[in-house]
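Our consortium's second objective concerns turning raw sequence data into structural hypotheses that experimental partners can test. To show how far this objective has progressed, the report includes one record in full. It was chosen at random from the queue rather than selected for favorable results. The single chain below, 290 residues long, was entered without modification.
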Amino acid sequence: MRIPEIIKNSEPRVSLEFFPPKLQSEWPVFLDIATKLKALNPSFVSVTYGAGGSTQDNTLEICKKLIEECGVEVMPHLTGVAADEKKIDGFLQALAPMGIDNVLALRGDRPGDFSGTDKELFSTFPHASDLVAYVRKRCPQLGIGVAGFPEAHVESPSIAGDLDVMEKKVSSGADFIITQLYFDNRVYFDYVERLRHRGINVPVVPGVLPIRNMGSLRFILQLCNARVPGQLVNALMKANDEGGNAAVYKIGVAYARQQVKELLEGGAPGVHLYTLNKADMCLEVMDGLY
């Protein structure tokens, strides 16, 4: 089912993001984790797509496994970076036989080992909106999601400029938005309000990443433009000094639970948990919340 219809026709629920293990030997453990998380009754799960399309085959194979073994609604990520029309067509043609009705269309990040120019990487699909328009033309039946950046994309010159980009994505055919992670719910609600003022009325699903340990916090800060509130940083540092990883984990669960609770009570159409392919923390965060 298309995700906009899932959101419209059901109570707000959690959705999940996975990344495909690089080695097939790791797949049984991954599928065991996904099976445990099925207890959350996710409205859908998304599967990431490596930089430069480096895990395209794994993305589709993992999607197939999740459908067959877990019975969940699956949305693969699709990136335009280093892709041409033939490559995108091949990916799209594989979806219908698998019963996949949605994609998350992204510009994509530069591969870390890429030594060429952006002109080479983004020659066919220089922006996410170009990929959205192409997918909409080729597969009008698909639900198309896009990434939203409540604190603006790291490459955006301003908040207003980032909102201009989102207008283009939606006008090109995007049906819904999943936000990048953030840690202050006021950022999400302000972002939605700004979008509505611009006439962008598609569902905006907030992305939440529970902080597991101090290493994951450092990873988060390197990964994206999210600001971590000072009170949270202080609480995590104190917990780490007094109790190590176990204490940090406890703070991370409690903070994410409060974030999710406020989001659902505030009218968000669901929450999208970045699982990092871990079950325990997500299960604790969502326990009893709906």
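The partners drew two points from this record. The chain has twelve helices and eight strands. The radius of gyration is 18 Å. Both points have been shared with the crystallography group to help prioritize constructs.
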